[in-house]
Design a protein that fits this description.
It is a single chain. This protein has 382 residues and is of the alpha/beta class. It has 2 domains: 3-187 and 354-381, Glycogen Phosphorylase B (Rossmann fold), CATH 3.40.50; 190-351, Rossmann fold. 42% of the residues lie in helices and 14% in strands. It has helices spanning 15-26, 63-80, 117-120, 126-129, 133-154, 165-175, 215-225, 238-244, 257-266, 281-287, 300-303, 324-337, 343-351, 355-381; strands spanning 3-7, 32-34, 51-53, 88-93, 107-112, 159-162, 182-183, 203-206, 229-232, 249-252, 270-272, 292-295, 316-319. The strands form 3 sheets. Strands 3-2-1-4-5-6-7 form a 7-stranded parallel sheet, with helices on both faces. α1 crosses α14 (355-381) and α10 (281-287) crosses α13. The longest helix has 27 residues, at 355-381. The chain starts with a strand and ends with a helix.
C-alpha cells in the first residue's frame, strides 16, 4: 500500500497540524504533501518528515502572505501538486488539502477538521464582516467561485472522517455527502504534559491570535479583573490585541514543547473563549491537570465535563454568553470552587483522548477501507 499524507499548509502550530503529526506517526514511511512549509513556524517534529511543497513555497514565507496569495495562486498550486502515484491519499484538511491531484483509482480519505470556514461561514472572519459596498460585492463573487471549487473537490473524496458529529453534519450538508461519515476525535499527546503540585497564580490562553478565537474578549475581561494572564500564540490580530492589554497580561510566542508544558502545568485555569468545532488546547490543559473556563458551545461539549454539583469529577466551568461580563462572572465563580477540582481526575480524563488511541483508530480505518477498495477493483476486473 503506497500512501501519501496531505495537509493544507504547515505554517503554524495548531490542532490540525498536530493531527498531521499523528498521521505521520501512524504511517511513518509516508511523505507529506502540503501547499507551503516553514519549519520555524510550525512544530519542530516536522523536520524529521519527508515533505513536498507546491511552487507557492517560493513566494509565501509567512502564513499571512500565503493567505493573501491564496486566491487564485494557492488554489492553482494545490491543484498542481501531484500524488497520482499513490494507492491511498490520507488528507488532513480545513480548506485546500482536498484540491490535490490524485489518481482516479486512488483511495482518498479526508479527515475534515472543518468545512472551509471562509467559504461556508464567512461571517466568522473580520475581513468579511467589516467589508462594505464594492469590497463586499467582490468578496461575495470570490467566495462564490471558491465555494464551487471546494464543493467539486469534496466529491472526489471516497470517505470522510470528521472530528465531531456536528462537523459530520456540516460536511453532509455543505458537500451533499451520502456515504456514512466516521467520527474520530482528534488526539492530545498526553506524554507532552505533566501535573504540577504547585500551580501558580496566572490564568492562561494558548491560541492563534485571530478574530474568531476571541482572545480580545479575554484581554478586556482581565484588564477589568486585574488578574495575571499569560497569552501564548501569534497571529494576524497580535499587534491589535497587545495594544489593548494592561501590564497584568504577558504575551509569549515561539515557546518550546518543554516550555509550553511548564506554562500549562503552572496555570490556575485555562481560558477558552471561542467557538470551535473541536479544540485540542482544552485537552492539553486537562493533560496538565488544569481545569478549563470555556464558552459552553461547540467541541468543549464533547471533550469537557462541566462542573455542576461535584467539581471533583469535572474538568471545566462553562459560561453561556460570549461576552466580557459572562467571562468575568465565570472566573469569579471558578474562584469559589477552584480548590474542589481534582487534578488527577482531570489528567485521567485527558488520557481517554490520547494520541495512541487516535493512531490505532486511523490505522484500522485506512487499512479496512483499503482492503475493501482492493476487493472492489479485483471484482470489477473479473
Amino acid at each position: 500500500m503506497r500512501i501519501a499524507l496531505v495537509h493544507d499548509s504547515l505554517m503554524c502550530r495548531g490542532g490540525a497540524e498536530q493531527v498531521t503529526l499523528s498521521f505521520h506517526r501512524a504511517f511513518p514511511e509516508a511523505p507529506i504533501y502540503t501547499l507551503c512549509y516553514q519549519s520555524d513556524l510550525t512544530f519542530p517534529e516536522f523536520k524529521q518528515c519527508t515533505i513536498h511543497t507546491s511552487w507557492l513555497q517560493h513566494f509565501a514565507k509567512t502564513d499571512a502572505v500565503m493567505k493573501r496569495l491564496y486566491f487564485p495562486f494557492g488554489i492553482v498550486a494545490m491543484h498542481q501538486l501531484d500524488v497520482t502515484q499513490y494507492d491511498v491519499v490520507l488528507i488532513s484538511s480545513t480548506h485546500c488539502g482536498k484540491y490535490i491531484k490524485v489518481s482516479k483509482n486512488a483511495l482518498v480519505i479526508n479527515y475534515s477538521h472543518a468545512a472551509f470556514r471562509l467559504v461556508w461561514e464567512p461571517e466568522s472572519y473580520a475581513q468579511y464582516v467589516n467589508s462594505q459596498a464594492i469590497k463586499r460585492k467582490v468578496f461575495d463573487l470570490v467566495l462564490a467561485q471558491l465555494r464551487s471549487v471546494d464543493f467539486k473537490a469534496a466529491q472526489r473524496t471516497d470517505y470522510f472522517i470528521c472530528n465531531t458529529e456536528r462537523m459530520a453534519n456540516q460536511v453532509r450538508g455543505f458537500y451533499k455527502i451520502k456515504k456514512p461519515i466516521e467520527v474520530i476525535y482528534p488526539p492530545v499527546n498526553t506524554t507532552n504534559f505533566y501535573v504540577s503540585n504547585n500551580p501558580k497564580k496566572y490564568f492562561l490562553v494558548v491560541s492563534r491570535l485571530e478574530y474568531y478565537k476571541r482572545v480580545d474578549l479575554v484581554i478586556e475581561a482581565f484588564n477589568r479583573l486585574g488578574y495575571s494572564l499569560v497569552v501564548v500564540g501569534k497571529g494576524v490580530q497580535a499587534e491589535e490585541i497587545k495594544a489593548k492589554a494592561n501590564n497584568n497580561i504577558v504575551f509569549k510566542s515561539g515557546v518550546s514543547k518543554e516550555e509550553l508544558a511548564e506554562i500549562y502545568a503552572g496555570c490556575r485555569a485555562f481560558i477558552f473563549p471561542q467557538y470551535e468545532d473541536y479544540g485540542i488546547t482544552p485537552l492539553e490543559a486537562n493533560a496538565a491537570g488544569r481545569p478549563v473556563i470555556a464558552y459552553g458551545k461547540g467541541g468543549v461539549l464533547t471533550t469537557q465535563i462541566p462542573a455542576s454539583d461535584n467539581p471533583a469529577e469535572a474538568t471545566a466551568l462553562f459560561f453561556e454568553e460570549q461576552t466580557v461580563d459572562d467571562l468575568i462572572a465565570a472566573v469569579r465563580q471558578f474562584e469559589k470552587i477552584e480548590d474542589q477540582f481534582d487534578s488527577g481526575f482531570i489528567r485521567s480524563h485527558a488520557e481517554t483522548f490520547d494520541e495512541e488511541v487516535f493512531i490505532n483508530k486511523i490505522r484500522q480505518f485506512v487499512n479496512e477501507k483499503y482492503q475493501q477498495s482492493r476487493k472492489q477493483q479485483v471484482a470489477a476486473i473479473k
